Amino acid sequence: MARIRILRFVRRGAAVAGIALLLSGWSRDDDGSRRPPPPVSPIPHTLPSTDVLIDAGHGGIDSGTYWNGVHEKDINLAISRKLYLILRSHGVSAALNRTGDYALSDDNRWHRASRHNRDLSQRGGLSDEIRPDIFVSIHVNWSPRRKNRGPLVIHQNEGRSALLAAFIQDGLNRLQNTRKLPMSSRKYYVLNRVRVPSVIVETAYLSDPRDRELLTSPRGQTRIAMAIAEGILAYRCVAP
Fold it and tell me: Where would I find the H helices in the chain?
């Protein structure tokens, strides 16, 4: 009887050992030797793709332009948030590169360049990860000249980017009763870095009293976001 109990114990122990072996990923060959598990293919780290990547300009220590305690970074974020919600309400997949008051350079500590260049690198690099259809960077303008006011959309020297800029510029012109034309430029790092149709939207001048009233009121920010969204939706209807 004692021998039978011993055999049962041995068999039970072998079964437990076998289960443990399977759970660990190891197995045994025919001769009883242990064989390591096959290598597991790494799962690629990818972010979900999106239709529109919204770049809320500046943030954190980088406040952008300012007037009497009003900072560009806060206006940019407010308009970007509203733009995000408007686009989503129209079924457009959108993403914000920042949702609070922080500098994107803080997420790029391995880059040995200046804080400003780290910030720009992070903004451009995110578009490679998310792979949006278009990239829209929201900003506020400033000028010491009193006559300067209204929106200005700057685009890549490329056809689809120019088309996107034209639609957004038209929407903002109608909102602010201006007749400005969009312009191309090669001097902006983000426009040179991003590989999809991209624009920088200078929504209005914080230095102009009329523009400032529009920029600093929630209703005005919503109207600006709606004008930009209308331009994006119009572009998506005709873009190749």
Answer: 2-23, 72-89, 115-130, 159-176, 189-193, 209-216, 218-238
Locate tokens 């451009």: which residue? 124
Give the amino acid at 21. Answer: L
Spacing of C-alpha 230 from chain mean position: 20
Task: Name the pTM for this structure.
Answer: 0.73
The neighbouring-strand residues paired with 154 are 183, 200
Residues facing residue 184 across a β-bridge = 155
Beta carbons of 132 and 53 less than 8 angstroms apart: yes
Chunked mean pLDDT (size 10), the chain, 240 residues: 42 45 48 56 54 91 88 96 98 91 54 44 55 94 94 96 98 98 92 92 97 98 98 93
Radius of gyration of the chain (CA): 28
